[in-house]
Design brief:
about 180 residues; Immunoglobulin-like; three-stranded mixed sheet; 1 helix; 15 strands; about 5% helix
Length: about 180
């Protein structure tokens, strides 16, 4: 029996990990006086799937979990590293939003002691005609389905949440089949 190694196998030793899926955008509602949220650990399987042909993959983020984030887009780069030091990068932005809870018009000052209706619109980029399920979570562990629909001709998925938890929420979309069954 003769031992041999094919060229295609050698090429696999010099390739970065392959990222098959990652969450692209997370929206978190800031609450409290500081208008900040704490960055959760976004290196697990709920946020990124990666593999390598030759070794295990370690997922890291340049900004560590537990970091306070202010209003606006937050850290995006996420790296998948293999044992040989090869790296593949993706971006998943964390956008912190803060609703304006105070009435803007003096004529509405009587509403200060009444519940204020707040809405938050989240938008995701998808594939035109593909079905998506919009989901929400307050802890990144348990997810609730909010809506199911097709991406518009430009691939946009938009959902307006009018009843979200006071402690804030994370949003994601899960892809389904296209309208033609593929």
């Amino acid at each position: 029996m003769r031992n041999s190694v094919s060229v295609s196998n050698l090429m696999l030793l010099d390739t970065p990990p392959i990222i098959t899926w990652h969450m692209t955008n997370v929206t978190r509602l800031a609450t409290g006086a500081t208008c900040e949220v704490v960055l959760p650990d976004m290196t697990g399987a709920d946020f990124i799937h990666a593999f390598d042909f030759c070794s295990s993959v370690t997922v890291t983020r340049s900004v560590p979990a537990g970091t306070s984030l202010g209003i606006g887009p937050g850290p995006g780069p996420v790296a998948a590293l293999d044992a040989a030091g090869h790296c593949a990068w993706v971006t998943n932005w964390v956008t912190v939003v803060s609703p304006d809870l105070e009435p803007r018009d003096d004529a509405l000052s009587t509403a200060k002691n009444s519940p204020v209706q707040i809405s938050l619109t989240v938008r995701f980029q998808g594939i035109p005609g593909r079905a998506y399920t919009v989901q929400r979570s307050t802890d990144l562990m348990e997810w609730s389905d909010l809506a199911v629909g097709l991406a518009d001709p430009d691939g946009l998925i938009s959902y307006t949440d009018t009843v979200f938890p006071s402690e804030g929420a994370f949003y994601r979309v899960k892809a389904g089949l296209r309208y033609d069954g593929r």
